[in-house]
C-alpha cells in the first residue's frame, strides 16, 4: 500500500472513530471527554516534564490546543512532544467541538423547558402564586420589594412564562392536579396565594358566579390533600370573589381570605365619609410609600400590651394588632400571651432594627 493509501486508511479510521463517539450515549460521552482531556494532559506531562512543570499546566495546554486558541506560552519542543500534539489535534479538536456543541444544546433545552413551564422547581421556602393576572403581577413586584431572596413560582396554563426574572419560576399545568403542585415543590413552600381565575371571572362571573370561587375551592382542596399526605402545614391565602362563599372555604385548610368585592366596596364608601382614607389603605397595602405593616416577635421584657406599645413607640413603630385583633388600645393592661402575633406600622429601617434577623435574611 502506497503512502496516499495509508493516509486514506488512517483518515477513514479517525473519521469512523469520531462518528462512533458522536453516537455514544450522553451518559458515556461526557465522562469520556473529561477522561480524554485528563489523560491527554498526563501524556504530555510525562513526555515533556521540563516544558510542562505541573499537571495543571499540562491540562491548561490541552484546553488551549483543543480550543485552537494557542496562546503560545507553552509548546512541545521534542520530536515526541510534537508528534503527540499532531495526534491530539487529529483526535481531540473534533471531539471537543462536539462536546461544546452538546453543552450549548442542553443549555438551550433547559432554558426552553424553563420558559415553557416544564421544569420542576427544586428549591424551598418559596412562594407559590396560582393564576396569572394583573393582581399576581402586582403581587410579584411587592414580594420582590419586600424580600430579596425568596423565590416565586407561578402556576398557570399559559404557553410560556409570563415574566422572566431571576427569582421567578414557572410551572405549566392544572393547579388542581397533584403532579403540577408537586412540580412546584408545594410540600417545601413557605406559602400559597390562590388568585381568582381571570378567564373564568371575565367569561362566567356574570352568568354563574359560583364558577369563579368554585375553581378556587377545588385548588384549595387539592393543596389541602397534599398537605395531609406529606404532613405539612403551608400557609394558604385565597382570593374570594363572593364573601358568602367563605364558610365553604373554611371546610378546607385556608388560613386567610381576600374578599375582593367587600374590601373595594368598604374603601369606596369610607372615602365618601372620610376623604383621603383610600390613600391610607394604599400605603398600608404597599411598600412603595415607606411605612408598612410588619409582624414582630414578642420581647421578653414586654409583660402587657402597654409595655410593648410604649417601647415600640419610642423606637418609631406603632403596635396596631395581635393577629386579627385590632383592639389593642382597649386592652393595654392585658398580659401578652406567649403565642401572640404582633403587628406594627413602621418603615423598613425601623423594622430591621427591631428584627436584626430580618435584615440578615
UniProtKB/TrEMBL annotation:
UniProt GO BP: monoatomic ion transmembrane transport
InterPro entries named among the record's database cross-references: K_chnl_dom, NAD(P)-bd_dom_sf, RCK_N, Trk_Ktr_HKT_K-transport
Residue ranges of every copy of the RCK N-terminal domain listed in the record: 124-259
Entry's transmembrane regions: 27-47, 59-77, 83-104
Cellular location(s): Cell membrane
Domain of life of the organism encoding this protein: Bacteria
Membrane topology reported for the UniProt record: Multi-pass membrane protein
Main localization, broad class: membrane
Keywords assigned by UniProt, alphabetized: Ion channel, Ion transport, Membrane, Transmembrane, Transmembrane helix, Transport
PANTHER family for this protein: POTASSIUM CHANNEL PROTEIN 2-RELATED-RELATED, POTASSIUM CHANNEL PROTEIN YUGO-RELATED
Designated name of the protein: Potassium channel protein
Species for this entry: Neobacillus paridis
Amino acid at each position: 500500500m502506497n503512502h496516499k493509501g495509508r493516509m486514506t486508511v488512517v483518515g477513514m479510521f479517525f473519521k469512523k472513530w469520531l462518528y462512533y463517539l458522536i453516537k455514544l450515549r450522553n451518559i458515556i460521552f461526557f465522562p469520556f471527554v473529561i477522561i480524554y482531556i485528563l489523560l491527554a494532559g498526563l501524556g504530555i506531562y510525562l513526555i515533556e516534564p521540563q516544558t510542562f512543570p505541573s499537571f495543571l499546566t499540562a491540562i491548561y495546554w490541552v484546553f488551549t490546543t483543543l480550543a485552537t486558541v494557542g496562546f503560545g506560552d507553552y509548546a512541545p519542543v521534542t520530536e515526541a512532544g510534537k508528534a503527540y500534539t499532531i495526534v491530539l489535534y487529529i483526535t481531540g479538536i473534533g471531539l471537543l467541538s462536539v462536546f461544546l456543541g452538546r453543552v450549548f444544546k442542553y443549555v438551550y433545552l433547559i432554558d426552553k423547558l424553563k420558559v415553557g413551564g416544564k421544569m420542576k422547581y427544586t428549591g424551598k421556602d418559596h412562594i407559590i402564586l396560582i393564576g396569572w393576572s394583573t393582581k399576581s403581577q402586582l403581587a410579584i413586584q411587592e414580594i420582590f420589594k419586600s424580600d430579596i431572596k425568596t423565590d416565586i413560582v407561578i402556576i398557570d396554563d399559559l404557553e410560556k412564562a409570563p415574566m422572566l426574572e431571576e427569582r421567578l419560576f414557572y410551572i405549566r399545568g392544572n393547579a388542581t392536579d397533584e403532579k403540577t403542585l408537586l412540580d412546584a415543590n408545594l410540600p417545601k413552600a413557605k406559602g400559597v396565594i390562590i388568585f381568582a381565575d381571570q378567564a373564568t371571572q371575565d367569561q362566567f362571573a356574570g352568568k354563574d358566579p359560583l364558577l369563579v370561587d368554585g375553581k378556587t375551592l377545588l385548588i384549595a382542596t387539592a393543596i389541602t390533600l397534599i398537605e395531609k399526605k406529606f404532613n405539612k402545614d403551608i400557609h394558604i391565602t385565597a382570593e374570594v370573589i363572593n364573601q358568602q362563599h367563605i364558610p365553604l372555604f373554611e371546610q378546607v385548610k385556608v388560613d386567610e381570605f381576600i374578599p375582593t368585592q367587600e374590601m373595594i366596596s368598604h374603601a369606596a364608601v369610607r372615602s365618601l365619609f372620610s376623604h383621603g382614607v383610600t390613600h391610607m389603605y394604599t400605603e398600608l397595602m404597599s411598600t412603595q410609600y415607606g411605612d408598612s405593616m410588619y409582624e414582630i416577635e414578642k420581647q421578653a421584657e414586654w409583660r402587657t400590651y402597654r409595655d410593648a406599645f410604649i417601647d415600640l413607640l419610642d423606637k418609631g413603630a406603632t403596635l396596631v394588632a395581635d393577629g386579627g385583633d385590632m383592639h389593642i388600645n382597649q386592652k393595654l393592661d392585658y398580659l401578652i400571651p406567649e403565642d401572640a402575633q404582633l403587628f406594627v406600622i413602621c418603615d423598613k429601617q425601623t423594622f430591621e432594627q427591631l428584627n436584626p434577623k430580618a435584615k440578615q435574611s
